[in-house]
Amino acid sequence: MKVFYRGERVVLVWDGLSAHWSRAMRAWVAEQDWLTLERLPAYAPELNPVELLWSSLKKRELANLAGDHLADVADATEQGIHRINHNPQPTTAMVLPHPHRTHHPPTTPTELTKRSVVS
């Protein structure tokens, strides 16, 4: 991230997963003058729409998956993202970026709005 945003200040919105807030992680973050963290609750789908994605994937494509390779998990995840992107019911559909495309973060409020997740 530091290389990608070279020379820019970054605000990272992180969920409250305990691994993100370990003593070692807090110490590392304290040394990064370019990085500001904002903490969300551990599970807050109304604030962190990716929670809905992971919930759906864990119930379907990743349920009881015991792949022999990391690629098996990646393939199942990609299948799940495809399923969600092509879901005709707008209440459960989410528009997600293709996993093999380069992501360019939005830079203006208009771009942020255009890239919002449909819920």
From TrEMBL:
Q: Which residues form a coiled coil?
A: none
Task: Show the segment(s) annotated as Disordered.
Answer: 83-119
Signal peptide region: none
Pfam families xrefs: DDE_3
What residue stretches are annotated with the Tc1-like transposase DDE domain?
A: 7-63
Q: This chain belongs to which protein, by name?
A: Transposase
